[in-house]
Amino acid sequence: MSLPGSTSETAAADRLEDSVEFAYRALRAEILSGALAPGAILSQVQLASRFDISRTPLREALRRLLAENLVVGDFNRRMRVSELNLDDFDQIYAIRIALEPVAIASTIAHLTAPSRAVLENHVTAMDEAIAVLDIDRFRDEHRAFHLGLTVGGGARVARLLEDLWDNSERYRLTYLHHDYNDPASEATRALTISQVEHRNMLNAALAGDATTCIAALLHHLQRALDIVYAEAAAQPRARVTAEALRFAPQQSMPA
Amino acid sequence: MSLPGSTSETAAADRLEDSVEFAYRALRAEILSGALAPGAILSQVQLASRFDISRTPLREALRRLLAENLVVGDFNRRMRVSELNLDDFDQIYAIRIALEPVAIASTIAHLTAPSRAVLENHVTAMDEAIAVLDIDRFRDEHRAFHLGLTVGGGARVARLLEDLWDNSERYRLTYLHHDYNDPASEATRALTISQVEHRNMLNAALAGDATTCIAALLHHLQRALDIVYAEAAAQPRARVTAEALRFAPQQSMPA
DNA sequence: CTTGCAAAATCTGTCTACAGTTTATTTGAC
DNA sequence: GTCAAATAAACTGTAGACAGATTTTGCAAG
Lengths: 255, 255
Known about the structure:
The structure is a homodimer of 255-residue chains. The first copy, chain A, is 66% helix and 3% strand. Chain A contains ten helices and three strands. The interface between A and B is large, with 47 and 49 residues. Chain A binds a DNA duplex (30 and 30 nucleotides) through residues 1, 18-20, 43-46, 53-57, 59, 75-78.
């Protein structure tokens, strides 16, 4: 088989990526980016031929996506890309609001010199990406910054937050269609606004001030939540985030 | 193929369970119960022959368990049951501590008459199970009670908490070897103690008092955490739960 | 007894084949 | 033209086969 796209990989043929890993990554990326829209039908034979692999490894890739809830399907029927709904979006944010403060506090309490530099670099890189209007670069650095702030939670927490982040992006990409080519567009200005919040979070983290950092994060999350809710539907905030917001650490915390 | 164990199923051959679902369930149960110990080697050919299916569906079942982190493996090498470590256990509880209060508050705020009865029945059933020393029954009702208390969080949260619960059980079953045949054993008495906490949680929930219910839950979780830490290793509590406990809602809450 | 190495046995990743099912298309009656 | 049955096409689930990799076994040298 050919493994399209992985030809100019980093390493040599030392440790070959297998077909299922390849199909898994490709499909996952297409689903999260919206290239494969929610509800889209996934024919094994068509996908297998498109990726130039047989159905056996493709099925394994699909099975993994099934476990991640990115695809759904019944016995003997073709699978479909899972649908989006605000209730799920609500829960994603409820979990993030409940969990990220804990993880951030842990990260800040154990910050090392190199990881400080890494965090700082991500924020700087975001500035640059905005200046050049390189939205893909911004997305990558944005993700890395947020996940980097929460690594202190450990591997399992990181895995969960990574999954939630990618799913959040899926909702944002599907519900929000913004124009990032115009430097003066509302979308581009929103990026600049969020950068202010990122700087606040970074500075607080570097100063060892978890309280301020968490407050900035919660503000950040709430704004993202509001934007999607406003754009996707006029319906009021669902109940789980409401509870999460109520329970989230306020301006008063030990240290 | 024969599908051992599913012969006397509930429904007719209306909607046949496929081989991969069967293998998935069987393997998962064996891993979680400890029948397949952490680190155990999983040969595809042996498992396939044991389940009387071909390797094709078995691989799909394994792939799903891989996504759940219950098995690990490298390319071209046999997979193994994933190992346990206290750091992971710590994170599981950190997530539960952060998330279950939010979910419980949501549940209590929307409690219906039938769901009240269901919760009450679970606690009663646990009493009965203890009286008869039916530990399997107790485990099932215990799980159902806790998950029932948190259903208000929604499908995604429920799925996550279910996964965390099952993983918690895996740690408990592996690290704790208790004698439930002796009504006077320490293990059996621990069950009775936890029932007091369950009653507290139930009563608070039925009274619509989320604050008290959550406080009881956190006490419950912390005790379970302490027991495993005491038995598994004398090392001090890891950092993530420490943060989670610090952030957990205290005796003072809006409503 | 160990250690190292080669042969044998076993295993993994992938493909193809095939039975049985679902989906699409055609056909014919109204 | 519309609907329904019937036929055709396409698809799913599973088994089995094969190449290539890994693990185990057997055996000789130290």
